[in-house]
Amino acid sequence: MWIIVFRCAPLGVGSLIASGIARLENIEQTVKLLGIYILVVFIGLIIYNVILILPITSFLSKTPPGLILKNSADALFLGCATGSA
């Protein structure tokens, strides 16, 4: 039963997105606003990670910031990729 739901879910989500796009009056303005939103979210996440999380983690663990960034790069990228979700 769940297999059927999981296989049909992308079709349902795609249909919901398509119906939402079809109702838009000014698609160009919406795309611009969405781009600004994405940019603000990414800048906010970068500032949060570099100014707040990195110094605190470095201070508490007594580890150089470069090593922390190197070891946590995958998690930071995942956080940026899903930050606005």
Give the overall pLDDT as a whole number.
85
Estimate the global geometry from the Cα principal axes.
flat
For the record, the count of structural domains works out to 1
The total of helices stands at 3
Work out the helicity level.
Answer: over 70%
Order of helices and strands: HHH
The SS-based structural class is mainly alpha
Residue stretches low in confidence (pLDDT < 50, at least 5 long) are none
Radius of gyration: 19 Å
Q: Report the span from N to C terminus.
A: 28 Å
Q: Total strand count, please?
A: 0
Observed structural traits:
85 residues; mainly alpha; 86% helix; flat
Write up what this structure looks like.
The protein is mainly alpha-helical and 85 residues long. It has one domain (25-85). 86% of the residues lie in helices and 0% in strands. The model has no long low-confidence stretch (mean pLDDT 85).
What does the secondary structure layout of this molecule look like, with pairings?
Blueprint: H1 2-22, H2 27-61, H3 65-81
Q: Brief description of this entry?
A:
The protein has 85 residues and is mostly helical.
